[in-house]
Amino acid sequence: MSRILIADDEAELRGLLQRYLTEQGQSVRAVPDAATAAQLLARERFDVLVLDLMMPGEDGLSLCRRLRGQGETIPILMLTARGDLVDRVLGLEMGADDYLAKPFAPRELLARIQAMVRRQQQLGAHLGPAGEEAVRFGDFTLYPTQRRLERAGAAVEISTVEFQLLRALASQPNRPLGREKLLALAHGDEHGVSDRSLDVQVMRLRRLVEADPSAPRHIQTVWGLGYVFILEPGAQ
């Protein structure tokens, strides 16, 4: 059973989702605004936050950005009445893990929530009992559960998509990963991401962490399979 927090100002939708998810064996709290959601997150543990983009007062994007800035690592699924690609990209850049446009089927929401929980469990299993072990490579240190990347002690700006990919690679260091396996670890089983998109994400990540992206030391290509993340502790 997963603990789910829903923040949405539509009372009818909150009630519908709370009833459906509860019937499916989930533990659900539903609140009408960002302020109440933030208060609950400060004192209780939840596995997933379902967050509406447009709410009176503080909107979902603002709360998402604030939570990530505070080091909150809960998986966030963003809901919006607008299906525009710009809104989706903006939500992901603010730190959301997934995105669902209204109207949607409650069953699809449940499937996405379950995929997010599975992904967290898979990554945690590879990163130690609490998933808190720092991963060091070259000048960089990755803090998987804190969504933080540092270079020589200074924070590095990294998008949500790039962070998820780096965290997935780092979860199985020195082990070649096929494209489909890597996509599932980074974005969930029902990711809908193409091989070409993955290659673009890898290219961007290399520009961020490699001294020479054309001759990568850490994120290397395994021809005919996918990629492998090579650890070099203490390398300069």
Question: How do you describe this structure in short?
Answer:
The chain is an alpha/beta fold.
Distance between the termini: 45 Å
Largest sheet: 5 strands, parallel
Contiguous runs where pLDDT drops below 50 for at least 5 residues: 125-131
Strand order of the largest sheet: 2-1-3-4-5
| Count of distinct strands | 12
How much of the polypeptide forms β-strand, as a percent range? Answer: 15-25%
How many helices in DSSP terms? 8
Indicate the overall shape: elongated
Radius of gyration: 18 Å
SSE string? EHEHEHEHEHEEEEHEHHEE
Q: For the residues shown, what is the average pLDDT?
A: 83
The residue fraction in helices comes out at 40-55%
Coarse structural class: alpha/beta
Walkthrough of the structure:
The protein has 236 residues and is an alpha/beta fold. It is 42% helix and 20% strand. It contains eight helices and twelve strands. It has helices at 11-23, 34-43, 60-69, 85-93, 106-126, 160-170, 179-187, 195-209, and strands at 3-7, 27-31, 48-52, 76-80, 98-101, 135-137, 140-143, 148-151, 154-155, 177-178, 219-222, 226-229. The strands form three sheets. It has a five-stranded parallel β-sheet with strand order 2-1-3-4-5, with helices on both faces. A hairpin with a 2-residue loop joins β6 and β7. The radius of gyration is 18 Å and the shape is elongated. The N and C termini lie far apart (45 Å). The model is unreliable at 125-131 (pLDDT under 50).
